[in-house]
Amino acid sequence: MRVGFIGLGNMGRPMAKNILQKGFPLIVYDIVPTAMSHLIDQGAQGASSPKELAGRVDIVITMLPDAKAVSSVLEGEEGVFAGARKGLLIVDMSTVAPSDTQRLAQEAMARGLRYLDAPVSGGVAGAEAGKLTIMVGGKEEDYKQCLPLFQCMGERIYHVGDIGSGNAVKLVNNLLLGINMIGVAEALTLGVKAGLKPEVLLEVIKNSSGQSYAFTSKVPSFILSGHFKPGFSINLQHKDIELALQTAKECNIPLLLGSVAYQVYTLARGKGWGQEDISAVIKLWEEVAGLEVRYAELRKDG
Ligand code: NAD
């Protein structure tokens, strides 16, 4: 099975590396040529365009920032559709709106190609460790063919339904993450302003009913250390809530907390923190409270 991988950023690079290390012949492409060099040094071959790559492989995986990038990689003049042979399986692992996935999948199928959406959760650390959670939408037989590749990148792999379902699950997850993160930021700042030690709050709440992934993972690694390098960036979280709001509009469902969360991440982007981890939203409350929620024993240079 010859595999192509397009989009070698924070997530794509370690995911592609794990596929290569499990012995699959791999051809890679990124719009930034230097992004390919690390994988080429490790034995992958480089392609000159998505079109050229598509003509040399059985499966193309894409891991791109957003639907605009996925569209340009698939539909562009030098794109995958232009170079694909009939039966090629496209696996988009980027986070995009379910409706974008459905549109692109329909176009692929009209050309005799196959399509899965397979977004992931677990962040850069999960990608590096090969321990991502992968949620897959599409046909059962295509899912089964791809399973050995998913197992190179992830630990928990779920076939959740038809095309677009993977991204629907992902958006629900990331809506919750984005809202939970803001809850953690304001509650923690209140606790410290009221005179509590952040390390005490960490210890008690991680063992109490207020805990969440945003709390147990982000408080020690980012907030208490003051180290806000992603991680999962505010820009990507902002995009994901935007996709949830777009999907909610299509479904005629109100997203009250989602709308507020969207504005908070917009504010944080306006502050120039778009490239920082989502936990950096706590700085909005810290500014108002006139304090920093840090713990000297975990503190990094920040
Ligand atoms: P990134 O910005 O680090 O990487 C994207 C890569 O795609 C870059 O190398 C870029 O050069 C390349 N690219 C952009 N446009 C291209 C084009 N037209 N042709 C070819 N290459 C192109 O982003 P990331 O953090 O790796 O995230 C990728 C996807 O995974 C996003 O959809 C994101 O929402 C999702 N995701 C990210 C995380 C995370 O923690 N970073 C976690 C889960 C899911």
Automatic annotation (TrEMBL):
Known catalytic reactions: 3-hydroxy-2-methylpropanoate + NAD(+) = 2-methyl-3-oxopropanoate + NADH + H(+)
Key words, A-Z: Branched-chain amino acid catabolism, NAD, Oxidoreductase
Keyword Oxidoreductase: yes
GO biological process: L-valine catabolic process
InterPro entries cross-referenced by the UniProt entry: 3-OH-isobutyrate_DH-rel_CS (IPR002204), 6-PGluconate_DH-like_C_sf (IPR008927), 6PGD_dom2 (IPR013328), 6PGDH_NADP-bd (IPR006115), HIBADH (IPR011548), HIBADH-like_NADP-bd (IPR029154), HIBADH-related (IPR015815), NAD(P)-bd_dom_sf (IPR036291)
EC numbers: 1.1.1.31
Gene3D superfamilies xref list: N-(1-d-carboxylethyl)-l-norvaline Dehydrogenase, domain 2, NAD(P)-binding Rossmann-like Domain
Domain 3-hydroxyisobutyrate dehydrogenase-like NAD-binding: 164-285
EC top class, as a word: oxidoreductase
Family affiliation: Belongs to the HIBADH-related family.
The protein's name in its UniProt record: 3-hydroxyisobutyrate dehydrogenase
Taxonomic lineage: Bacteria, Bacillati, Bacillota, Clostridia, Neomoorellales
